[in-house]
Design brief:
By secondary structure, this protein is an alpha/beta fold.
Amino acid sequence: MTLRRADRGAPAEGCPEAIVAGWEAVTAALRSGVGARMYDQWLKPLRLGSYCDSTGTLELLAGSDFTANFIASQFGDRIRLAVRAAQIGVEEIRVVRAPHRAGAVNTVERIAAGATGGERSAPAEPTPQPRRPAPDGLALRHSFADFVVGESNRLACSAAQAMGARSAPLFNPLYIHGGTGQGKTHLLHAIAAAYAGHFPAHQIIYMSAEKFMMEFVTAMRANDSMAFKARLRAAKLLLVDDIQFIAGKGSTQEEFLHTINELAESGARIVISADRAPQHLDAVDPRILSRLAGGLVADIQPADLDLRRAILEAKRASLPDAAIPDAVLDYLARSIRSNLRELEGAFNKLIAYAQLTGRPVDMDFAQAMLADAVRANARRITVDDIQKACAAHYRIDPAEMRSKRRARAVARPRQVAMYLAKKMTPRSLPEIGRIFGGRDHSTVIHAVRTIEELRQSNAEIDADIRKLQRQLEM
């Protein structure tokens, strides 16, 4: 696979002429489709980036990660339709942050200006700087430095750092599993970036399991499987994302098994990600499962409230000019629980709308702009949920929550459950009392006051409450 960088100044060295020449039609279609204001605000500053001739993928360069993520989420489908309609040889687009280059010319803006007859004097072309090529399939825009660590992902992050370090890890392969949008792909990119920094001459290959399958099938049909095998077996670091997609694909699984066996025997590092643990992968060759389980298996649990809050803090810190109150971050962290990708998307949407409308980011604005996302993430916590969680935490029978027993081993967990029921549900005090075995509302008031006082003086009780709240809010 070859990546060819478009020249930002004079037309078209390296990037196909058809793309540069046809980009005028793409920009015109986008301007018409999204409107002049939105186009000028977001799409006009884009620059042409690298072009992959084997996949037909064109990179579009934005000024920051925030801008790249917002454009990809809000305008990605429109841009894909426009480039395909223009028939310029582009099958896919990827919006990424541009590497900093002083004096660089905005290629997209230059072409758009030419279409309207405007004249621009291009600045002198800067002296080209040597640039280490990105590993196959990676843009190296994710690193460990911007990965926020919490209890739910600490093991996976530590294992990933070991896999990307100069010294050989004590395990191989590394298998990372977790739900959608929890940071698996970020860690794979970070491993590649760290490893490439230590070993710039080593071959690094990153691909999804789906791409592995497609390239293997294409090579078989073209009677060129030896070239495919040779390319993969030359890798010093192989990263395969979403391995669950090879389930049921017999010949692909056979080739994948041979590939990871030979790489492991040669000392190459192997990193695999999936949405579930190896033993839960259906229709996957047991030999593959054995090889994967023979390394280190690290899971990423759903982010708890503290981690979600820390991620939002990091994003706010990256935007020093944006005034975002703590209360808004708390609202986002508590409301968007499904996955971290949605959480970051909600944050980006909030900032973008604030910039477009000129309104300050306050609670009223956040609640209005994110109402749909919050409704989609809403999970109603019930008193029954709280009783079960407290009973499990304190290792008592759930029936004790409604019993008349007053032994301390039962009474304290019951008081904690009443406190949480008051704080986390809309139930009234009499309703809570009835659910806890027909108790009077004054008993609930006493329980709430007792736990509030204990949280101030007893660190263990306070830790229990925090843990239970995080568990219930997931």
